[in-house]
């Protein structure tokens, strides 16, 4: 429920800011919190059954989940490190990834 609430908060901020990713510290903190939460959730699932077993069970969905978690965290890190603008990374793609994760 917490992840869903965080996603909705990010989407609402995105819409209020005129469909641009906000550069405010509060938005970045919420985005960071969401990425940490999905990373911890994924890490716990991997820790419980192991990576290879996780990827071999329910093959398509678990591989898709792995891809979404990795891409969300990589895109977030790239946006922080290189100050990537909205033209360089499609904001719609980021929002879709957040919503799916």
How would you describe the overall organization of this protein?
The chain is built from 5 helices and no strands. It is elongated, with a radius of gyration of 14 Å. α1 (2-16) packs antiparallel against α2. Helices cover 79% and strands 0% of the residues. It has one domain (2-18, 25-100). The protein is an all-alpha fold and 101 residues long.
Short structural summary:
The chain is mostly helical.
Walk me through the topology.
Elements: H1 2-16, H2 25-49, H3 51-56, H4 59-82, H5 91-100
The whole-number mean of residue pLDDT values reads: 76
- Topology order in helix (H) and strand (E) letters: HHHHH
Number of extended strands: 0
Helical/strand content category:
mainly alpha
Query: What's the tally of helices?
Result: 5
Low-confidence segments, ≥5 residues, pLDDT <50?
none
Oligomer type: single chain
Task: Outline the biggest β-sheet.
Answer: none
Helix content: over 70%
Distance between the termini: 13 Å
Rg over C-alpha atoms, rounded to the nearest angstrom: 14 Å
Shape: elongated
Strand content: under 5%
Tally of domains: 1
State the main characteristics.
101 residues; elongated
């Amino acid at each position: 429920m917490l992840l869903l609430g965080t996603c909705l908060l990010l989407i609402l901020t995105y819409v209020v800011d005129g469909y641009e990713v906000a550069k405010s510290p509060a938005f970045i903190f919420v985005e960071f919190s969401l990425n940490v939460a999905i990373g911890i959730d994924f890490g716990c699932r991997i820790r419980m059954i192991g990576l290879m077993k996780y990827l071999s069970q329910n093959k398509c969905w678990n591989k898709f989940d792995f891809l979404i978690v990795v891409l969300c965290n990589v895109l977030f890190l790239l946006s922080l490190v290189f100050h990537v603008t909205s033209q360089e990374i499609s904001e719609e793609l980021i929002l879709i990834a957040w919503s799916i994760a």
